[in-house]
Amino acid sequence: MKKGLLVVLSGPSGAGKSTVIGALMRLRDDIRFSVSATTRAPRPGEEDGREYYFRTREQFLDMIAADAFLEHAEYVGNFYGTPADPVEGNMRAGYHVLLDIEVQGASQVMAKRPDAVSVFLCPPSFEELERRLRGRGTDDDERVAGRMAAARREIAQARHYDYIVVNDDAEKAARELDAILTAELCRSGRQLQSIPEGEMIP
Predict the structure, then answer these.
(1) For 1-40, what is each residue's pLDDT tens digit?
(2) Rounded to whole angstroms, how far apart are CA atoms 73 and 154?
(3) CB distance 53 to 83 below 8 Å
(4) CA separation, residue 46 to residues 7, 97, 118, 187, 197 (Å)
(5) Residues facing 69 on adjacent strands
(6) Which three-class secondary structure state does DSSP give residue 42?
(7) How far is 18 from 170, CA to CA, in rounded Å?
């Protein structure tokens, strides 16, 4: 069984990551979505191992000391991180593991795992991004302005990713992600491992 890919997906708020991921998972049945660990308390209806792995602060700090995370950060008094063991287990089982992660966490993963395939999801324009953010109806003008400023900083990091996908249509963006996975699986370094040595082309 071939080992699955580790796929890092980043993009600003409003880029449409959740919609594109949902469309991609309808196209492929060999993808698993990474579950993060957190020290925040579970919300009503949340289950350990489904939305998050819920850990105490002491447990989380022990995991950091044991280098058990692909990345981690502290946000508003709580820790969040990507445990390495579930990711590796799914990959060994042949599944591609998808991390939906912001640029700082992504840089940690890419430094620790140079084999990761990194993709940055961009909106087609800043005007469209602002339209999407305002269309949510959840943020006031000040909050939208803050998200737009953050988006400009994040998009400036897109050049450090292996691929950039522009999300002007979620289904099209999902097909492009699907094509990226297929191309990565066909890389000679991965394919040569599956060819018996006696059948290698001289």
Answers:
(1) 689 999 999 999 889 999 999 999 999 999 999 999 999 9
(2) 17
(3) yes
(4) 25, 21, 29, 39, 49
(5) 83
(6) coil
(7) 10
Which element (helix H / strand E) includes 97?
A: strand 96-100
What 39-42 contacts at long range (C-beta under 8 Å, 24+ apart), as own/partner pairs, is: 39/78, 39/79, 39/80, 40/78
For domain 6-187, the CATH superfamily is: P-loop containing nucleotide triphosphate hydrolases (3.40.50.300)
> Residue 2 in contact with residue 190, Cβ under 8 Å?
yes
The dihedral built from the CA positions of residue 135, 140, 145 and 146, taken in this order, carries a sign that is negative
- The whole-model pTM stands at 0.85
Find tokens 């949340």 and name the residue. 46
CB 21 within 8 A of CB 132: no
Q: Both tokens of residue 32?
A: 């698993």
Q: In angstroms, rounded to a whole number, what is the distance separating the alpha carbons of residues 186 and 71?
A: 28
Residue type, 134: R
Q: Which residue has the tokens 């700082």?
A: 104
Instruction: Give 37's strand partners.
Output: 53, 81
